[in-house]
Amino acid sequence: MASIIKHVFSNYNEFLETSKDPEIDSWLFMGSPTPVLLIVIAYLSFVLKIGPKMMEKRSAYELKSIIILYNAFQVIFNIWLTKQVFNIHLLGVLTTDTCNNKLPVNSKLNTSISAAGWWYFFAKITELLDTVFFVLRKKFNQVSFLHVYHHTITAFFSWCYLKFLPGEQGVVIGFLNSFVHIVMYSYYMIAALGPEYRKYLWWKKYMTWLQLIQFGIMLTYLMFTLTTDCRMPKALTYFFLTHVIIFLYLFSNFYRKAYTKPKKLQ
């Protein structure tokens, strides 16, 4: 067992050295996997164990003003992230025939994509607060497997992408996800304003449609990269494909339970 662990760490260190980017390594949380792993572990510990135990004999926190401000921030932040994608010329990135995972070191495009990638990763870290607020408000029914799995995976693998494979193939996924989050956090912000605003939230189920369409496009794009001369490792592409398929299944299952089953029971 000890030899297996030693072998894994040896291979990781070798891979880390060959894919090292001094500029990216100097950015917050990017020097090693330790910070992001600690954040994810702390997140899972709090939302699954510590938080529910802490709130067991406490009244739910209101947090209305904080949640409205938080959702407003996420809307503005994701609008800004979407704008960054247009700043790096999305159409030109999509029509490239090389699908580089490493552009020239001094490339202006490379710097722009990597910087946008870090802010996207940072957005995924801030979004972990979604679940923290659920716990503090004792909305434990919303701390579902889908919710926790989605937040955990996107936070960790946005770090992995930026650390090991910054390049134009991540622009599509970042753009789609940021756009969907503009809609999603707009909904949450309106919902947080109070019951009198619920009449404006008739489009709730269409958010799930939008998320499913997002994953469908991601799936198509990742399959496309497998058929082109893309330097992105095939194993990693298959790994991303697997998780996109899992998300498709989980969100489809959520939609079926939330919007299809109740109609059949009436």
Task: From the structure above, extract its key features.
266 residues, mainly alpha, 11 helices, 0% strand
Task: Put the structure in a nutshell.
This protein has 266 residues and is an all-alpha fold. Helices cover 75% and strands 0% of the residues. It has one domain.
Descriptive report:
- Helix content is 75%, strand content 0%.
- It contains eleven helices and no strands.
- The protein is globular and about 55 Å long.
Helix share bin: over 70%
Secondary-structure-derived class: mainly alpha
**Number of H/I helices:** 11
Number of domains: 1
Overall mean pLDDT score? Answer: 82
Largest sheet: none
**What order do the SSEs take from the amino end to the carboxyl end, as H and E?**
HHHHHHHHHHH
Low-confidence region ranges:
101-106
Strand content: under 5%
Distance between the termini: 56 Å
Radius of gyration from the alpha-carbon trace, in angstroms: 20 Å
Per the principal axes of the C-alpha atoms, what is the gross shape? Answer: globular
**Annotation, overall tally of beta strands:** 0
SSE diagram, text form:
Blueprint: H1 2-18, H2 22-25, H3 34-55, H4 64-87, H5 90-94, H6 108-126, H7 129-136, H8 145-164, H9 169-192, H10 204-227, H11 234-265
Helix pairs in contact: 3-7, 3-8, 4-6, 4-9, 6-8, 9-10, 10-11
